């Protein structure tokens, strides 16, 4: 069979194009797989940013709060004497609340009244990363935790905020230590009323 230079050139060109397509496919797939880690990093940065008072929270009109960017409510429970017993009580409390561990973000989620907007339990030191207490993962004693939840877009859907405040008050009585708000000030009944709206 006789080959012409044009046929050879076309065959070679199609092979090169196929290799480029395979390389692009592999690159796109790697980018998609690395995205969950990037999302976890972004969420940790968001949690740290939530520790300073957002401008939407200082507004006095409810409509201004709802039209602004949705932020997370944050409460911090700082343990007075972190040790193995405190960790065990925390693990028992998480089991009692049917909390689930997210191994990618390294936080626990409690469904509450709205599973689509779960309450997040994260480590306060360092921010965000919790050991899997439900499976006895080895770790240093936890010094404190953060309770995080996004407020609802509509005030009539704030059942989750009631659950959030109830969990915070329960933790305040169960664990000895300080409960702080997003401004690192002691949480009071006024703080809870503001969260509920």
Automatic annotation (TrEMBL):
Localization of this protein: Cell inner membrane
Keyword list, A-Z: Cell cycle, Cell division, Cell inner membrane, Cell membrane, Membrane, Transmembrane, Transmembrane helix
Superkingdom of origin organism: Bacteria
Residue intervals passing through the bilayer: 6-28
All residue ranges annotated as the ZipA C-terminal FtsZ-binding domain in the record: 88-195
Chain spans, region Disordered: 36-68
Matching InterPro entries: ZipA_FtsZ-bd_C (IPR007449), ZipA_FtsZ-bd_C_sf (IPR036765)
Membrane topology, record value: Single-pass type I membrane protein
Principal location class: membrane
One cellular component (GO) term of this entry: plasma membrane
UniProt GO BP: cell septum assembly
Protein family according to the UniProt entry: Belongs to the ZipA family.
Function (record text): Essential cell division protein that stabilizes the FtsZ protofilaments by cross-linking them and that serves as a cytoplasmic membrane anchor for the Z ring. Also required for the recruitment to the septal ring of downstream cell division proteins.
Protein name: Cell division protein ZipA
Record organism: Halovibrio variabilis
Taxonomic lineage from the root: Bacteria, Pseudomonadati, Pseudomonadota, Gammaproteobacteria, Oceanospirillales
